[in-house]
Amino acid sequence: MPAVNRADLDFMLFDWLGAERLTALPRFAGQSAEDYRAFLDLAERLAENEFLPTWKPSDSAEPALGADGEVRLHPGVRDAVRAYLDAGLQLATVDEAHGGMQLPITVGTAAMACIMAANIAASGFPMLSQANARVIAAYGTPRQIELFARPQHEGAALGTMCLSEPEAGSSLGDITTRARPAGADEAGRRFRLTGRKMWISGAGQDITPDTIHLVLAKIENDDGTLPAGTKGISLFLVPRLLPEIAPGGSGPNDLAIAGLNHKMGYRGISNCLLNLGEGTRHRPGGEAGALGWLVGEPGQGLAIMFQMMNEARINVGLGAAALAWRGYLLSRDYAFERRQGRPLEDRRAPAPVPLVRHPDVRRMLLAQKAIAEGALALCLYTARLADLAATAGTEEERSRAHARLDLLTPVTKSWPSEFGLEANHMAIQVHGGYGYTRDFDVEQLYRDNRLNPIHEGTTGIQGLDLLRRKIMGDGGAALAALLEEVRATADRAAAGPGAALAPGLRDAAGALEQAARSATGAADPVMPLAHATAFLHAAGHVVVAWLLTDMALVAGAPEGRLWAARHFHDTELPRVAAWLAPLGAGSRAALDAPDGAL
Amino acid sequence: MPAVNRADLDFMLFDWLGAERLTALPRFAGQSAEDYRAFLDLAERLAENEFLPTWKPSDSAEPALGADGEVRLHPGVRDAVRAYLDAGLQLATVDEAHGGMQLPITVGTAAMACIMAANIAASGFPMLSQANARVIAAYGTPRQIELFARPQHEGAALGTMCLSEPEAGSSLGDITTRARPAGADEAGRRFRLTGRKMWISGAGQDITPDTIHLVLAKIENDDGTLPAGTKGISLFLVPRLLPEIAPGGSGPNDLAIAGLNHKMGYRGISNCLLNLGEGTRHRPGGEAGALGWLVGEPGQGLAIMFQMMNEARINVGLGAAALAWRGYLLSRDYAFERRQGRPLEDRRAPAPVPLVRHPDVRRMLLAQKAIAEGALALCLYTARLADLAATAGTEEERSRAHARLDLLTPVTKSWPSEFGLEANHMAIQVHGGYGYTRDFDVEQLYRDNRLNPIHEGTTGIQGLDLLRRKIMGDGGAALAALLEEVRATADRAAAGPGAALAPGLRDAAGALEQAARSATGAADPVMPLAHATAFLHAAGHVVVAWLLTDMALVAGAPEGRLWAARHFHDTELPRVAAWLAPLGAGSRAALDAPDGAL
User: Fold this and answer.
1) Residue A596: which of B463, B529, B560 has the nearest Cβ?
2) pLDDT tens readout for residues B388-403
3) Chains A, B: CB contacts under 8 A, how many?
4) Same-domain check for residues B219 and B270
5) N or C, which end of chain B is more exposed by having fewer CB within 10 Å?
6) What is the rounded CA–CA span in Å between residue A60 and residue A76?
């Protein structure tokens, strides 16, 4: 069966979000809904024909590091990503000035959802590369763009993001990768980098000749020390293959894949320990140190990298949503086909009935549907915010979209990751014992999805980002603006067939607002932060309930939309109060329990 | 590090449950707490020295089916189980009359927890065998006991349970394995069985020469049809190797492993498709059909098998609890060792602090502790009920214990399975990216534990068992008796340092009672059953909150007990109301949504 349901996607994109209205903006002038549909057709074909067939094989034969230090991917993954690049999908949202299609991010995101549903691991190569090239296009010098973004646009290189180190995962201020000045050329200031980068997806790959690494490192002080904290971090372009302008000319850069991580799932993409400047394999220009070109100014590294990080965070949520979606579709089909047991109301029925006749199975299908469609809607909505933040007609609209995007990024990253995994858990349950075997797809969906609450900032980090920076940081203004829209949707619902949804939505919004107020006003600012993860889940549930309601209110929406919204309101919205209760009560158990009690 | 924390286990077993008081019962006369500790020492040594070292290796090299039709286990698993049998642990709870130690089930369960924490998959062999032999001892003829239980007691055979078929998983009334009368002998009535059994753990193994299968099948009617429904099910003893008394004498029985299931985890134990009576490999006595001896009377099969099923259900919960426990211990150690980030209250601290300094990490440790210790307590409490139901001094005590055991079995099976998995999810989160790699143990714990909400009856089935049979079936009497004890514990808590726990516990008990009442009184009995899984979770949370409180009130309890109880009360008990809300509101979304809306 197909990995996605295009009718669902088209409903969200066109009927609900009105993607075609974006064509009224100057950046998208001359484009049409037909263009967008044609682009999605292309993505869907690639997903089904190239990415899906290699999803399972590349799980059992993960990337290997050869004795020559080169990484060998599963050939199917190589071919699928090659087909993607050859079809030019990486150009979807790139400026026309750089040879791109200049499509809305909203449309590019919908297309990426198709690829991710088919093969989340393989999708990582183009996803990271697109985000990498976008950073270079935004912050690089013209020559940097030509040397390092253009090959990615043309499909001759793929890009990575190199932030973490073995001893600095979530805590980037502690990185120790070191950059020493090494002259300058037409592409900018050169440095020689030494250090070790961990968790680098796509760093070792045999799809394209070159790999462009965006590396965070610290420029060493005159006395050889490194500047402390995140303000000392700078950003460097470190290609695997040096361009002609490098000292010593073109050739391999001084970097090496020192190891591969062996993961529970998500195995189609290499995840590497990358050593910079060991000097054992290559010494460009005769000196040790991987050659890199500074992007932006010294000390701006983290600020610039956050553009890529935020894009990647939204894409993590998107991947989790896509896996939830596919699990939902698979378990739905299974539940309609597989016969087992008798209906509760007629236990002496002569023959087994399809699983879907059992209320608990129906519950798990509706719950998955709500999670999958809600998560996907959240990601597409966020993607449209990214479009509007960059291209809306007025400064005020842009800044409003930007504030909303900022507020929602941690939610869009984490909500699909946590609840998409719950959805995949239910997809397995619907399959019974078969769901636990590798003969069915749902077990791999579950293993793949387990990464999403971790990478690009764990759920705990997202909770802190939301509550500390995005809410306590602005006194709750961005949240208040959001909840105003939530209430407006509740008002619209109250007047129609969704009337039953209105009170719960209003209550949940009120509870969230109240919790934000008590967090902002707390005497001890650490206490609320001990409940940041619970707050994050509660916020996500309110936002998703809002989006599900909003979609159900679209004229002509498929009837399942209203049922999924209703089920989510009945069974999931009550959790909001449960998550917020300990914050409201000022629970300090996790803070006050002595170490010996843990 | 060790797989278990003996101090925790001993606290629960002796300080809280007072296992030594069981020695006052005639069955355990002459035994002492020292005997129990010595037995646990033995189990702990076997767990650490034999079972733990082979846990990871047997995950990557799962059982294989040779061209000769024989299953090859990982040699480490073979050796570990062999060591267990050689040490005689399978005799723990067996009657002295049958050569056993006649220890309390409570003690045997605690010992099994150690083995399970070290290697859940390998533990399946002795766990199933012990339950199998107990059924034979209880329902078999003396000659059956001698032929089929004794070899298991002596370590010369292992036992399995064969219920499901490819087309009949949860729905046993639909099995089609057929039994034809084939004479009788000193061991009872003989039958020839033909059919296919699915999900048979341990059916193919090379640890002991023989395997004793307890097989559900239907005795065919004179016209060759099979009786309908569960009342037509009978139970048969089908050994892999026929005894001398069989027609044609000793030799292989007519059964074959037709395939192995390839699982997400839990890979150390074979899980087989078992074909009976294909006649291709063996034809005992010249005729096709696996020879089996009837246990009990025709049509009693399911009733007898439920003894084994219920024991296995409790052991599933125990395994899930053990995995949660080990994940908790591993992530706790990691959080104290690994340094990362700055404390929330001093973000400019000069050096990274241990993970345990971060409130969200402390939250995840306390939450895991509460789940792991709560789940383990639940299993040990249930095991003591099994002891009391069989051996308490008065009929009234036995019947009270029996009613409680019946009520709690679905909770004991499912609560640790669902929330132990949540605990393992948190254990991974504490490890960050490392937790997702196979270099650390927590990812395998998570994969292993994912089976537990499925086998021996899915969580959905347990929910129906609890709400329909155990609560609506007796008008809520067993639940009322339980909640009376919960309230008594709340009263005791109110008078001491656990005073803060009392109101929440009372509220949650009240909410559960109210929900049970509205379920029992519902006009449409199907509506409440659509919320059976949510009710099951709510009931489990109330029971676990009660047990955590009860343990915290033990004089001299480790201080962590009270903190874990407090944290669970603050953060988890509010979920009870959320789970029960849709039942209370009579939500019918899952029932009324048309198929097209799913």
Assistant:
1) B560
2) 999 999 999 999 999 9
3) 262
4) yes
5) N
6) 12
Q: What are the chain B neighbours of A365 within 8 Å (beta carbons)? A: 598
**pLDDT at residue A281 greater than cutoff 70:** no
A537 and A473 together in one domain = yes
In a domain, B569, yes or no: yes
pLDDT at B347: 84
pLDDT (tens digit per residue) in A389-426: 999 999 999 999 999 999 999 999 999 999 999 999 99
For A340-386, the pLDDT digits (tens) are 999 988 888 989 999 999 999 999 999 999 999 999 999 999 999 99
What's the structural domain count of chain B?
Answer: 3
C-alpha span between B334 and B435 (Å, rounded): 10
CATH, residue A45: 1.10.540.10
* Closest chain A C-alpha to B430 CA, distance in angstroms: 9
Question: Using a CB-CB distance cutoff of 8 angstroms, which residues of chain A are in contact with residue B575?
Answer: 575, 578
DSSP per-residue codes, B156-173: SEEEEEE--BTTBSS-GG
Q: Is B282's pLDDT higher than 80? A: no
**Which residue among B335, B352, B432 sits closest to A458, beta carbon to beta carbon?**
B432
Secondary structure of residue A386 in the 3-state scheme: helix
How many residues make up chain B in this entry?
598
For residue B568, the number of C-alpha atoms closer than 13 Å in the C-beta half-sphere is 34
What average pLDDT does the structure give for chain B?
96
The answer to the question of residue A347 being in a domain is: no
Inspect the interface and report whether the beta carbons of B581 and A574 lie closer than 8 Å: yes
The reply to whether A318 falls in a domain is: no
Element (H, E) at B503: helix B501-520
Chain B residue with CA closest to A532: the answer is: B360
Q: How confident is the model at residue A347, as a pLDDT?
A: 84
B590 and A359 within 8 Å at the Cβ level: the answer is: yes
Reported as a single tens digit per residue, the pLDDT across B182-219 is 999 999 999 999 999 999 999 999 999 999 999 999 99
B285 and B200 part of one domain: yes
Which CATH number covers residue A268? 2.40.110.20
- What residue in A sits closest to B359 (Cα-Cα)? A530
Residues A131 and A183 in one domain: no
Please say which residue of A277, A298, A319 terminates a domain: A298
Tracing tokens 């209703």 back to the chain, one arrives at A566
The confidence score (pLDDT) of residue B169 equals: 81
From B343, which residue of chain A is nearest by alpha-carbon distance?
A: A526
Summarize the confidence of residues A461-479 as an average pLDDT.
95
> Chain B: nearest CA to A188, how far in angstroms?
33
- Average pLDDT (B24-39) is 98
Mapping DSSP onto H, E and C, the string for B319-339 reads: HHHHHHHHHHHHHHHHHHHCE
Same-domain check for residues B523 and B549: yes
Residue pair A548/A374 in contact (Cβ under 8 Å)? The answer is yes
Same domain, A55 and A183: no
By residue range, what is the domain housing residue A46?
6-153
pTM: 0.98
- Neighbouring CB atoms inside 10 A of A395's CB total 8
A543 in the same domain as A494 = yes
Please identify, among A127, A153, A179, the residue that sits at the C-terminal boundary of a domain: A153
Q: Tell me how far apart the terminal alpha carbons of chain A are, to the nearest angstrom.
A: 47
Q: What is the DSSP string of A559-576?
A: HHHHHHHHHHHHHTTHHH
Q: Is the pLDDT of residue B281 over 70?
A: no
Q: Do B435 and A447 touch (CB under 8 A)?
A: no
- Asked if A528 and A572 sit in the same domain, the reply is yes
Closest partner residue to A264 (CB to CB) among B366, B436, B585 is B436
Mark yes or no for CB contact A581/B570 under 8 Å.
Answer: yes
Q: What phi and psi, each to the nearest 5 degrees, are found at residue A259?
A: 175, 160
Of all residues in chain B, what percent carry a pLDDT higher than 90? 94
Min CA distance, A361 vs chain B (Å)?
A: 8
Q: How far is A524 from chain B (nearest CA, A)?
A: 10
The answer to whether residue B276 is domain-embedded is: yes
Yes or no, beta carbons of A582 and B597 under 8 Å apart? no
d(C-alpha A72, C-alpha A66), whole Å: 7
